[in-house]
TrEMBL record, chain A:
It comes from Geomonas terrae. One of its GO terms (cellular component) is plasma membrane. Belongs to the binding-protein-dependent transport system permease family. CysTW subfamily. The keyword Membrane applies. Its main location: membrane. The gene is cysT. This is Sulfate transport system permease protein CysT.
TrEMBL record, chain C:
SUPFAM superfamilies: MetI-like. The complex is composed of two ATP-binding proteins (CysA), two transmembrane proteins (CysT and CysW) and a solute-binding protein (CysP). This is Sulfate transport system permease protein CysW. One of its GO terms (cellular component) is plasma membrane. It is a multi-pass membrane protein. One of its GO terms (molecular function) is ABC-type sulfate transporter activity. It comes from Geomonas terrae. Part of the ABC transporter complex CysAWTP (TC 3.A.1.6.1) involved in sulfate/thiosulfate import. Probably responsible for the translocation of the substrate across the membrane. Coiled coil: none annotated. InterPro entries: CysW_permease (IPR011866), MetI-like (IPR000515), MetI-like_sf (IPR035906), Sulph_transpt2 (IPR005667). It is found in: Cell inner membrane. Keywords: Cell inner membrane, Cell membrane, Membrane, Sulfate transport, Transmembrane, Transmembrane helix, Transport. Residues 72-275 form the ABC transmembrane type-1 domain. CDD domains: TM_PBP2.
TrEMBL record, chains D, E:
CDD domains: ABC_CysA_sulfate_importer. It comes from the Bacteria. Residues 3-237 form the ABC transporter domain. The keyword Transcription does not apply. One of its GO terms (molecular function) is ABC-type sulfate transporter activity. Keywords: ATP-binding, Cell membrane, Membrane, Nucleotide-binding, Sulfate transport, Translocase, Transport. This is Sulfate ABC transporter ATP-binding protein.
Length: 282, 312, 290, 355, 355
């Protein structure tokens, strides 16, 4: 009761000072830094006729790059969702030597320049690299294949799921689990029917963020992807390619499509998110 | 002191590092002024675009004439006849395309037709983004054309086959070299002659060797003054001298030392031993000039894209 | 069932009846350690071993090389402009979004988040479209001899764009969770708006703020894609550290490339250590309280 | 300072949290706002403090329209339900806050602040804890710090939102008495919110009973307890038994007993409900069916000073009687035995809502 | 199922949350664990449920060592203080959870579960709300859902941790009575935790008073209320007045009054404190100084069914007397007047802790 009350008072206009100036400044920054620059994309793309636009964004090679980019991003985000939950769970629930270090390291992909990450990963997973040497004879080729794209995307997206799930688990009410145990649920039932459903919105948020980041990623991927048209060429690279052919309009057209698609996906995931939290609504 | 900006493509880093020092000395002697030349390197197309978008290059020294043409077309920073303003079509040095293979040439690669053998893995950058790669592509095409019974269709099939042997397409010549040398990908790297020399000398004579194909293309990287920029900055004189100096004895020697084929007869003779002799075709003769070559082969939907069109 | 039946390693955080069976725990901990080692420790190790592969001397020389130093200077300048800007923006934006309700709030938050889902390449591109010679303002800028793109301002702008949401993202949920009661209390005690913010709100979110700043800074220093598009790659002038790494790498100067990269990695590690320390400190404070 | 609330309404979206509320609090009084959860008590308090704006109506502080002043100049001390102490400041700094944010001109010196704060800490009996952080205090201690903090700026009105809501029963009783004594000492106009009728009855000079955004009744504790204006107030202020019956010509017929419907205003004949507090019923073993309700003892339970007797009357209705221990001991009731219950002070309400 | 706690100790780090606690709960009883915050009530409850392990001692359920079973097999229903409902399930699914996680062999069919759940929802009077989520329920409703959920698996022991702690005074009183009735209907062995003495006195068959990890006293409500074993229990179970004095030869000297120190065990002469409940004092206008304490009326306050009289006795000690309204009305005391207070049932404790 206390909590819901607090919430209801956090809502409402109230009389705290400073709304107008801070809102004004926020909108101004948003306009100058985000909205105006992004709008140029649409203006530039609008210089194309519809057919040209379709030609630019629906060429087979471009379509293939969407498939590669969004497909790998999806896979990577799923991987991150899976391992991210395990990592978050382990870091929160268990105590083992080195836990703090691992915990701190989770943020590394946020902090490491993506190009460095790409170069390093390519070095490790190339056929003469530390792991490539081991994997190649087993028939697993990572670097310069779509698997490499997935790998780089997993790397850069890793912190998102962990860092969104972790606080939820930390604040998770143990009593809920205990209640389920007293009602006769076994560990597996408790996890699948009580813990995971409650963690799900956070996982979804992390998944969404990891996905959005992966879709746009460029720096780390070009070094490890192999960049083969139709196979391992990502959309951001295509945008760059078009740019270097002086095809500004084509590049922005693809950029607009990318922007819209990831926006739509974000939107869908946000709706899903809302649905997954429906029980929290008053 | 005056400052020049030379916007160039990837493999010329070392060349211009040496050349700039020499030029600074030369200019000091000649005019008593200090000059520093800043360098910018990247894929040739990317560099041209930067100039088009406002990168204040006093001179451009790019991989293909096409890229300089675009600077004229898109931004009018350079007059249309820029190529006529300097000797040798504005190309103070030339190069060609050769192969780099692993020591001992384990896959027995001798000529272009070895590259299309099944199981051979070829490393070359992406022609859509790399100037060097376009030379590679055109050299292969020319080779196929010049074979007995060669025609457009057979050339197209040949190049298509070749690119199906390519496992990695880097965006620039340097990236491709790294992939071949450092990552151990592929059996053969198609590269600028100077790149190949550099790789062998820098990264190990014991690890790589150069294979010279029977036929290749004469690559003439052009240089140009960016008129609008030098006029705005008031650097026309020194920039012109900079380009001129490329054709001088010293300039030509530096080019040769960096494995670019000098255009000056005397210097060429001096370094003749360095550069293997082979049959060279030119873009103008074989492909009707860069603009046409660009349009048929590398533009969106051109032959290169068709090579990668899904057969299904 | 009782966790104390097992050795000290793999203890469950809060002793209780609800622990997974030991093998499951072992599997999870093992999986985590393996996964993180593979994805985080290994690249980090590879990076440093490459950087130091030719010895300390070479490493030092690579860092003191003038172009490398200039790149570091530029990166620092970028961060020094970009972080305070986004810090200030983050604080202001989180105040008006977290402490008030208004129609369109979630739209506003989404827009603040937007740069996050934009590909860095595209974020660079938009600035080319605005400030490039072929863009909206390019000719005018050139006529007035103002350089934005292919110069420091462009690099800063692109970096600001890319790191725009970082501080705000961190602060908004935090401030929302803390409600408005303390601010209201300060208000009824006669404090003005700024006083309330400085003396009540800010101290309460300072750790979150620090975390946001650290992440913002790390990204600002490490951004590659967007900066690459607007930099122009002029040696010793418009190359940031990540670009310099790429250049060195392309010059077959691998030791130097990794050496310079390791500076960024070290910086990241220091930030992370700092962050871990602050968190630890915070927990300590809480514990002292509880 | 007196508080005048004039026809105040407040809506949140479509929901009316306050609906035409009028109220006046004379200077120096301690008034309780009593009502169930969601009745608008907090909203009213926040409006007085200026933390919430009104949609309609006016708030006058000392006769002046308060909307002219924003919260910081209203000289109102607010004690929040969850204390809202500044987590990052120790007790001293919390209490000193209001003084230290005064404008330079009127801000007292360091020493003056110090002595003033310690004076207050003495008042709340916490001088020795001056350097603790809120998280190191018990609920009751936090509550007192919140109070001292509010008092430090010498407010002319003190507003307390469920000051003891989150505390243990025992601690609550102590603080409750302490608050009353404090008020008797410093006599600042105070309004406190509670949903515990005992708290209101025990502490307040006047009680305002609220329900669904309206004031149901206002008066001294004994006025609202002994003369509740309507069934809601009757029910909310203490345990009550309901007897269903009829009124005819001013005489009520309740479970076979005939009573003068004195409480009822006019002769509204018809079905009616009689409300009787559980301590307003006498039990005896003898009686006639006409002046007492025959009932069976279902249970006898000693609860502290009282003894609760559960009775079942012939009509099937259950009711409860609270006896003092003395009375209960004298009667020595056995479960199952037949007794007679004689209600005193029955109030009749027709249609559940009219006197 | 009976519960036997034998010499249980539980430490958290260096802190002993339970210190050699023994206790037995016969089958079918409703027992209250009463004690101040931090006294170990929750810990004891969790140990019975198997949610916490013991450091020393044993818990026997139905005579069997419980440590052989983990919580899921103890047949213990646990109702948590903050309900711990499954937020993402509606009322029906919450209640059905325990049945639906039974192993396949013993799991009832869908239809059986449905009818069983609705039976329980009827019991808690919430059938119509079966599809609401917990966030859409009031505190009291949530509490009842938590109870129904625990009852669904037909536990042999029901444990309730401050079941009404978070509720309004009014709602609390209702639920309290409802719980008692429920227990009378289904008669499952139940232990509930509270820190509200009134709640314990009103609801429980037996009360266990805890303090600092120890059991201070155990007995029926009237045993602990009327015969508290020590000052702590005396104080914790109701309002009490302290009179400082001496005992000599079995006679106590309290504020000028001489009383037989009947309560005190042996003739431990020396300084002693007399404990008297506030309703165990009679007031009259006449008396002699030897059997009554002369005192001045400082205040008279009507609090619902009782009237509280504040008195100041000559020695300077303040004390309180609770009178029934009747008695108070008869006396019609005025503030300031001089009266005589006659304590009944004085208990003497020497050194604050020994009888
Ligand atoms: N900011 C708000 N936005 C929407 N509704 C609100 C807001 N504040 C209060 N309400 C609603 O107004 C009504 C009155 O709320 P208020 O907090 O004044 O009740 P209260 O009497 O203090 O209750 P409680 O005893 O539970 O604290 C409630 O139904 C509440 O949900
Ligand atoms: N997991 C734990 N770790 C450390 N100390 C604990 C833990 N659980 C309880 N304690 C301590 O043990 C003591 C008894 O706690 P317990 O929760 O049993 O008290 P309680 O009687 O239920 O109090 P309350 O009425 O406040 O709920 C407290 O001092 C508490 O701080
Ligand atoms: Mg309230
Ligand atoms: Mg407890
Ligand atoms: O530098 S290239 O354009 O030859 O790749």
């Amino acid at each position: 009761m206390a909590r819901s009350l607090k919430k209801s008072h956090a809502a409402g206009w109230g009389n705290l000072p400073g709304f107008a100036p801070t809102m004004g400044y926020t909108l101004l920054c948003l306009l100058v830094v985000v909205l105006v620059p992004l709008s140029t994309l649409f203006f530039k793309a609008a210089t194309l006729s519809w057919d040209e636009f379709v030609g630019a964004v629906a060429a087979p090679r471009v379509l293939a790059s969407y498939r590669v980019t969004f497909g790998a991003a999806l896979l990577a985000a799923l991987t991150n969702a899976f391992f991210g939950v395990i990592v978050a769970w382990t870091l929160v629930r268990y105590r083992f030597p080195g836990r703090r270090i691992l915990d701190a390291l989770v943020d590394l992909p946020f902090a490491l320049p993506t190009a460095v990450a790409g170069i390093t990963l390519a070095g490790i997973f190339a056929s003469n690299g530390l792991l490539g040497k081991v994997l190649e004879p087993l028939g697993v080729k990572v670097a310069f294949t779509p698997v490499g794209i997935w790998l780089a995307m997993v790397f850069i997206g890793l912190p998102f799921v962990v860092r969104t799930v972790q606080p939820v688990l930390e604040e998770f009410d143990r009593e809920v689990e205990e209640a389920a145990a007293c009602l006769g649920g076994n560990r597996w039932q408790i996890c699948t029917r009580v813990v995971f459903p409650l963690m799900f919105p956070a996982v979804l948020t992390g998944f969404t963020l990891a996905f959005a980041r992966a879709v746009g990623e460029y720096g780390s991927i070009v070094f490890i992807a192999g960049n083969m048209p139709m196979v391992s060429e990502i959309t951001p690279l295509l945008i760059i390619t078009k740019l270097e052919q002086y095809d500004y309009a084509g590049a922005t057209a693809v950029a607009v499509v990318m922007l819209l698609v990831s926006f739509m996906l974000l939107l869908v995931l946000n709706l899903l998110q809302k649905w997954s939290r429906r029980y929290a609504e008053q | 002191a005056t400052e020049l900006l030379n916007v160039s493509y990837d493999p010329t880093r070392e060349l211009y590092q040496d050349f700039n020092k020499s030029f600074a000395r030369h200019w000091k002697q000649k005019s008593g002024q200090d000059v520093t030349v800043k360098q910018s390197h990247g894929g040739s197309g990317k560099q041209a675009r930067a100039v088009i978008d406002g990168l204040d290059a006093d001179v451009v020294t790019l991989a293909l004439a096409y890229d300089v043409d675009e600077i004229h077309n898109k931004a009018k920073l350079i007059p249309k006849d820029w190529q006529k303003r300097l000797p040798k079509n504005s190309s103070p040095y030339s190069s060609t395309i050769v192969f780099l293979v692993r020591k001992g040439n384990p896959k027995q690669i001798r000529d272009w037709n070895d590259l299309v053998r099944p199981g051979i893995s070829v490393i070359t950058p992406n022609p859509k983004t790399s100037g060097g790669a376009r030379w590679n592509y055109l050299a292969a095409w020319a080779y196929a054309l010049k074979q007995k019974g060669g025609n457009e269709a057979s050339a197209r099939e040949f190049v298509g086959k070749l690119f199906r042997n390519v496992p990695v397409l880097d965006s620039g010549a340097r990236g491709a070299t790294t992939t071949f040398v450092q990552r151990g990908q592929g059996d053969v790297l198609i590269a600028w002659e100077n790149e190949a020399f550099l790789a062998v000398n820098e990264l190990g004579k014991d690890r790589f060797e150069i294979v010279v194909p029977s036929l290749s293309i004469l690559a003439e990287p052009p240089v140009a003054l960016v008129d609008k920029v030098v006029d705005r900055k008031g650097t026309r004189v020194v920039a012109q001298e900079y380009l001129k100096y490329l054709y001088s004895q010293e300039g030509q020697e530096i080019a040769a030392q960096n494995y670019y084929r000098p255009s000056d007869r005397k210097v060429a003779a001096k370094y003749a031993k360095l550069f293997p002799k082979l049959r060279l075709v030119t873009v103008d003769q074989t492909f009707g000039g860069w603009t046409r070559a660009q349009k048929t082969h590398f533009a969106d939907g051109g032959t290169f894209d068709q090579i990668y069109r899904p057969s299904r | 069932m009782n966790s104390s039946h097992y050795p000290g390693v793999f203890r469950v955080q809060k002793a209780g009846a609800l622990a997974e069976p030991f093998p499951v725990r072992l599997l999870l901990v093992g999986g985590t350690v393996l996964f993180l080692t593979l994805f985080l420790l290994l690249p980090l190790g590879a990076l440093f071993s490459e950087a130091l592969s030719k010895g300390w001397q070479e490493y030092r020389a690579a860092l003191l090389e003038p172009d490398a130093l200039s790149a570091m200077r530029l990166t620092l300048v970028t961060a020094v402009i970009c972080v305070p800007f986004n810090l200030f923006f983050g604080i202001v934006a989180s105040w008006c979004t977290a402490k008030f309700t208004f129609p369109g709030k979630s739209l506003l938050v989404t827009l603040i988040d937007l740069p996050f889902s934009v590909s860095p390449v595209v974020s660079g591109l938009v600035y080319v479209l605005v400030f490039g010679l072929q863009g909206w303002l390019g000719p005018w800028l050139q006529a007035h001899d103002i350089k934005i793109i292919f110069a420091v301002p462009g690099i800063v702008l692109a970096t600001v764009f890319v790191t725009f949401p970082f501080v705000a993202r961190e602060l908004i949920p935090l401030m929302e969770a803390q409600g408005r009661e303390e601010e209201e209390a300060a208000l009824t005690l006669g404090a003005g708006g700024l006083q309330t913010f400085l003396r009540v709100t800010l101290p309460n979110v300072k750790w979150g703020l620090l975390y946001g700043v650290i992440l913002c800074n790390a990204r600002a220093m490490g951004e590659f894609g967007a900066v690459s598009v607007v930099s122009g790659h002029v040696r010793g002038a418009t190359n940031t550290v990540p670009l310099q790494v790429e250049i060195l790498y392309n010059e077959y100067n691998f030791v130097a490339a990794f050496a310079v990269a390791s500076v960024l990695a070290l910086l990241a590690l220091v930030s992370l250590a700092l962050k871990t320390f602050t968190e630890w400190k915070m927990r300590q404070l809480q514990k002292a309280g509880a | 300072m007196s508080i005048e609330i004039e026809n105040v309404s407040k809506r949140f979206g479509a929901f009316a949290a306050l609906d035409d509320v009028s109220l006046s609090v004379p200077s120096g009084e301690l008034v309780a706002l009593l009502g169930p959860s969601g009745s608008g008590k907090t909203t009213l308090l926040r409006i007085i403090a200026g933390l919430e704006s009104v949609d309609e109506g006016k708030v006058l502080l000392n006769g002046e329209d308060a909307s002219l002043h924003d919260p910081r100049h209203r000289k109102v001390g607010f004690v929040f339900q969850h204390y809202a102490l500044f987590r990052h400041m120790n007790v001293f700094d919390n209490v000193a806050f209001g003084l230290s944010v005064k404008p330079k001109r009127t801000r007292p010196g360091k020493e003056v602040i110090r002595s003033k704060v310690f004076e207050l800490l003495k008042l709340i009996q916490m001088e020795h804890l001056w350097d603790r952080y809120p998280s190191q205090l018990s609920g009751g201690q936090r509550q007192r710090v919140a109070l001292a903090r509010a008092l430090a700026v010498e407010p002319q009105v003190l507003l307390l939102d469920e000051p003891f809501g989150a505390l243990d029963a025992k601690v609550r009783q102590e603080l409750r008495r302490w608050l009353r004594q404090l008020h008797d000492e410093i006599h600042v106009t105070s309004v406190f919110v509670t949903h515990d009728q005992e708290e209101a009855l025990e502490v307040a000079d006047r009680i305002v009973v609220m329900n669904r955004g309206k004031v149901e009744q206002e008066g001294t504790p004994s006025e609202v307890y002994d003369h509740p204006a309507n069934p809601f107030v009757f029910d909310f202020l203490g345990k009550v038994n309901l007897f269903h019956g009829r009124i005819d010509n001013g005489v009520a017929q309740l479970g076979g007993v005939r009573l003068p419907a004195s409480g009822s205003s006019s002769g509204t004949d018809g079905p009616a409900v009689g409300y009787v507090r559980s301590h307003d019923i006498d039990i005896s073993r003898h009686g006639s069916g006409s002046d007492a309700i025959a009932a069976q003892v279902r249970g006898v339970l000693r609860v502290g000073p009282l003894v609760r007797v559960d009775l079942l009357h012939a009509g099937g209705e259950q009711f409860e009687v609270d006896l003092s221990r003395d009375a209960a001991d004298r009667l020595a009731l056995q479960v199952g035995e037949q007794v007679f219950a004689r209600p005193r002070n029955v109030r009749f309400f027709v249609n559940d809502y009219q006197i």
